Amino acid sequence: MILTTTPNIENFKIVDYLGIVTGTAYDSSYSSNGTKMSFKDMFSMTKYYEKYTLGLEAIKEKAFQNLKDNANKLGANAVVGIQLDVEPLANSATLLVSITGTAVTVK
Known about the structure:
Blueprint: E1 2-3, E2 14-28, E3 31-32, E4 35-36, H1 45-73, E5 78-88, E6 94-106
Parallel strand pairs: 1-5
Antiparallel strand pairs: 2-6, 3-4, 5-6
């Protein structure tokens, strides 16, 4: 599946617009692959940023997979105009990733 932030795809023709699709995922930004950051590691900026980055990447991958699954349900082979939004949930260490785009069929 082709995923792009642009409204069209070079060397492809959009044959059909199938609708808006979304993919969302949320999780703690302080965990990665099921392992949580220890209390001691929270005071090490290097470990903190490493875990935070790995956690965010994992959440983004889940959201992109959900986006692709939703586009496949519509019969799309591409999603154009993708926008990604990352929001922290109030009073928690949880991040919400929301991805939106237009499902299309290209040739």
